[in-house]
Amino acid sequence: xxxxxxxxxxxxxxxxxxxxxxxxxxxxxxxxxxxxxxxxxxxxxxxxxxxxxxxxxxxxxxxxxxxxxxxxxxxxxxxxxxxxxxxxxxxxxxxxxxxxxxxxxxxxxxxxxxxxxxxxxxxxxxxxxxxxxxxxxxxxxxxxxxxxxxxxxxxxxxxxxxxxxxxxxxxxxxxxxxxxxxxxxxxxxxxxxxxxxxxxxxxxxxxxxxxxxxxxxxxxxxxxxxxxxxxxxxxxxxxxxxxxxxxxxxxxxxxxxxxxxxxxxxxxxxxxxxxxxxxxxxxxxxxxxxxxxxxxxxxxxxxxxxxxxxxxxxxxxxxxxxxxxxxxxxxxxxxxxxxxxxxxxxxxxxxxxxxxxxxxxxxxxxxx
Length: 368
Description:
alpha/beta
C-alpha cells in the first residue's frame, strides 16, 4: 500500500505532521547547543518543542521560524500561522567551559544532547569507514578530522566529564556509543570499562550503551553487569537489500546475529530496555517497515524510528540523496507508535538512551 493512498482515507494528525516537517526541514533559528557531525543523525540544533527534547536541522530556508517562544509557519505571501508548538533553545552547558589536566576540552570528550543527556562516542574510529564499507549516512570520523573530538576517550576522562555534567548542568542520563572495533567484542569491552568508571564517579546515573552485535554474546551480560541500564543494537534497516545498499560493511553481519543479540539483550536487560534504530527514508516499503517494527516490539525491542537526513560529509549527501517526505515519515511514525502503545512500550521507560531522550524521532509526539 502506498503512503499517499492510505493518507486519503485516514485523518491526518496535524500536530504529528508538523513535527515530522520540523524533523526533516528544521527551523530558521540558531541553537547554542548543536552537533555538526558524528555517528548518528546530527547537524542539528538541540531545542525543546513543547517541553520535549528535539534535534532539529538549523535551516535558513525552512518555512518554520521562531517568534515569542512559539514555532510559526510562514509562506511566500507573508502569511503567518501559529503552529501551537512552544519553543525554547537548550542553553550551552557549563561543563563545556572546562578542560582536563592535559588540556582536552570537556566538549571534545562528551556533549550535551537535548536538555539533560550526556552523549559520547567512546571510540571515534570504525573498521567499516573505508568508502567501500562505510554506512552511507554516517560521519563518525569526520568530527575527528575536524578537530571537534578525540579518537579514544579514556574511562577516567568520561568519569570526569560525567561528574561535572551532572553537578553543573543537571544531566540525568548518558549514552555511550562506539565505532566498531576489530576484536570479537566489536567495542563492548571498552564500553564496559567506561560504564564502570562513570558509575564509580556518579553512582546511579542511567547509562545506555550502543554497539554492533558482539561476536560473543557473553559481552551483553558483561555490559549489564558493568551497570548499563539499557542497550542499543542498531540495525538501521530491516530489508537485506536496503542494508546491502546503505551499509555494505555492516550488512555482512547477518540479521540472524542481530536477532540473537536482541533476544539475549532482552533476556539480560529486560523488555523495553533494548532498542534499535530504524532509519525512515532509506527506500523500505512503509508497510513492511511498520510490520517489521511490530515484530521487534513483540521481541521486547523498542524500534526507534528516526528520519534519514543526509548530513554534510556523508556518501549519501555527496550522491545527492534527499530526505523522505514528511508524509512518509508521519505514516511510518504513526504506524509504529500505534504498535508501541498497544504493547504498553514507552521510550521514556528505558530511563537512558536514544528512545528515552526522543530528540531525533517523532515517536514521542505520536504517543510512542
